[in-house]
Structure formats: C-alpha cells, structure tokens
Amino acid sequence: MSPVFGHGRLRLYLLKLLEESPRHGYEVIRLLQDRFLGVYSPSPGTIYPRLARLEEEGLVTHEVVDGKKVFTISDRGRAELNARLDELAELEEEISDSVRDIAREVKEDVRETVKSLREELTQMARDVRQGTRHEERQARNDHREAWREQKDEWKRQKSEWKRQSGEWKDDWKRIWASGFTGEGSSAGDDRLGQMLAEFVEEVRRDAAGSRVGEETLATAQDALYDAARRIRDTLR
Amino acid sequence: MRQWSVEKPERLTFDEVSRLNVRVVAGRLAVLAGDGPATLEVTEVGDAPLLITHDDDGVLTVTYRDLTRDGILDGLMSRVRDGLAGDPQALRASDRRVTLTLTVPADRPVNVGTVSASAVISGFRDRTSIKSVSGDIVLDGVSGEISADTVSGDTESRGLVGDLSFKSLSGDLTVAQGKPRRLSATTVSGRITADLELPPTGHVTMNSVSGDIVVRLPHAVETDVKIRSTTGRIETTFTGLDHSAQAGMSALTGRIGGGMASLSAHTVSADVTLLKGGRA
C-alpha cells in the first residue's frame, strides 16, 4: 500500500479530503482507513504533522470547534489541488486498483482457508471411518472367542440367578415401596432441552424482523424469570 | 431519483446509500463494506449497458433494464431448478459479462442476485442475502442475518456470525470459523463442511439428501445432538452419544455438556461425521 502515497501524494490526498469538506484530524484518518478498507491505516503521528505542515505553507487553516481542530482548505490549497488534478485522477485510479486488489485478496484468502479446512476435516472424517472399519474387522475376529466365553458366562450366571432370585424378590418389594424416582428422567431431560431450544428459535425468529431495544429486553427478562420460577416449582 | 446507464468502465460515488440491490448475469462481483461514501467501479461491461439507479430513499440498484421487474431472477432460478432452461436470449453471458466492485457502509442491507457471476461479499452487519444459479459465492466476516441460495454454485465462507441460512441443489457449502446463533443448511447433493463455534443457544439444522456432512465442534462444546440418516453412516469422535441403528434408519443422539444449543442433521444416503476439535 505504501507506493500509493509516495512523492507528496499523501499531501495531495489530504488536500482533496479537506476540499470535500472541513474535517478534523481524526476524521481524516478514519476516511483514509475507509477508503482503503482498513488496509492502509495511517497513525495520528503521520497525519497531524502533515496537517501542521500544510498549515505552515498556508494551504489549510484551522479553527477550534468543541476543543477539536477543524481544518479547512485555503485558496492557495485549492490552487495547488487544481494544478495537480491529473495527478489526483491518477491517484484515485490507483486507489480503486488497490480496492480491487483487496477484493481479490479477500477472495483468495477465504478460498485458501476454506480449502485447507475442507482437506483437514475430510481427512479427519476419513480417519474416523477407517478406525471404525478396523474395529469392525477386529470385532468379527473376536467373535468366536467371545461366543465361547459367553457360553461359560451363561453357565456361571444360571447358578448365580438361582442364588439371587431370593434377594431379588426383596429388592423388588423395596423398589415398589419407594416409587420410581429417577425413571425416565433422561428422556424427559432430552425433551426439555429440545423444547427450550425450539422456544429460543421461535422467539429469535419473531425478533429477527424488528429492533430489540432496552424495553423489549426488560420485558423478556421478566417473562423468562417468571417462566423459570414456574418450571422450578413443578420440579420440587 | 438519479439514473445512469453504464456502457464503459466507469467509477461512480453516491452519498447516502440506504440499501444495495444488485442483479447481474455473468462475470465477477465484489461487494465490500467501507464507511466512506458508497462507490461503484465498473471495470468491465458487456454489450448490454448496466442500469444504475439511486432513488430518493437511498436505495442503490445495479441491474439491467430487462431484469428490473422484481423477482424476475427468482423466477428464473426456480425455472432452472425445475430443469427448464431459461430464455437463452436473456442469458447470453457474453453480452452480460461485468466486473464490478462496490463499497457500501457496513450497516446497510445488501441483496445480490447473479446467474453465473461469482460474488465476493465482505464485512456487512445487517441483512445480507445472495442468490446465484451457478456462480460461486465467497462470504468473509459477514454478520447479522445472512442467506445464500445457489443451484450449483459453491458457497465458501469465513468468520460468519449470526443467523445463517444456506440452500443449494448441488453446490458445496463450507463454513470456516462460523459462529452461528442459528444455522440452517439444506442441500440435495452438495457437501456440507462446517467448523463451528456454538454459542449457548446456537441452533443448527442441516438437511441433505446425498451430500456428505462433516461438522467440527469445539472440544468443550455444550449441545444437544440429533443426527439421523436413512442409509448413510454416522460417525463421531465425541464420546457419550448414543448410536442406534434400526432397519432403514440410523441415529446418533444425546447431549454433550449441558447448555441448550442444539445440532441436528438429517440425511437420506449421505454420511455424517461429527468431529471433536482439539483442546484450545
């Protein structure tokens, strides 16, 4: 970006910006950033001395408004600008070239990021699948062995069951007496999560078309607090 | 209202643009956010002149005279989707090749439609919507409400934040460094690749017939997961999710961490892979 502003061209561009309208230094810096979409951002340390220099040469004047120096182009400044119109046109040409370059860079940059992400994730996905296939093969090999072990296991369990059936009856009575707390809570929990997520999406969709201000937020906060309290009450 | 007919390379500057509409056919389009005055730079324009209008409400429209009726491109796109060719006369790409670069303030709504032109859109914060038939779409650092709709064009994105909606027939979708409050992606045969950071109430739904889906979520994500596929395989590197497989339907469901974010995906024959990101 630096070649754009060689050979007194920053000076020319500053005059152009001040010719459009009187501005204070901060505004000039921001405009330069905007013109270059943030790629060229001059520091106050670059711009303020330049403006002071232009003032010494009588090309701009300043007045203090609300404690800030506002610079205005003078007739001499305007004369210099008019004398250098060709140069200015050339400069603007280069600036739009650099904006185009920025567009191209953005595109190349995103494409590069996206390409490497896709390669990375595709490779990871492939590894996961291969891992699973390997496990499946392993599982088939282990199957015979497992079957033999399973038969032995069943024999052992048969005698174990006999022994336990006595205790089991007692357990059953105890569970029956105490009720089924905890049963089905996992499925219920899932549905609650889904309901909450759906609620959020619905509200978001409604809110999408309009501006959400402080008042809406306050109302929402109250309603949510209320709803949470009611749900909590039923959980006790 | 002011109007320009642009037949040769030209550069225009507009004060106060409230929203931007662009309808082009072929070539290249870049729309960048910048807080200065809105600018349009035409570096290439085919035989047909571009029509630029800047109306009294500040709406800036870039289009062709015969595309000005609202929704004509939508009609065209649905015809292409239905497998009927559009009017070849209206679509002769060589007459309509343009290279355009627009800069508009970041907080303005942007609405873009292209047939085969590629589009780069960067930095906007309000409502950004783009439709293309075969043109590729690149989105960078866009937030707010974003929708991208293509037939065969790919959609590539980086750093998107907010409500995201994607549709494609066969175009691939890639989301790099995405942080969706809501993401909905629907495709027939396009591949979906997404590297996402899910906010606490993020809501992600993906539907695909035959385009594979690969999603990566951060190591410490908190979300409900509900993935179903008729004949595709479902894999994950997260632990603690339930795999189930019945005739004609396999599923991966459960909850990672707490939270109320949700991720759901449905496919017919496409594989789905849910990957766990590395420790930050």
Automatic annotation (TrEMBL), chain A:
Residue intervals of the Transcription regulator PadR N-terminal domain: 14-82
One family name in Pfam for this protein: PadR
Annotated segments matching region Disordered: 126-151
Organism domain of life: Bacteria
PANTHER family: TRANSCRIPTIONAL REGULATOR YQJI
UniProt protein name: Transcription regulator PadR N-terminal domain-containing protein
Source species of the chain: Streptosporangium longisporum
From TrEMBL, chain B:
Pfam family, any one: DUF4097
Entry superkingdom: Bacteria
Domain DUF4097: 42-274
This protein's name: DUF4097 family beta strand repeat-containing protein
Species of the source: Streptosporangium longisporum
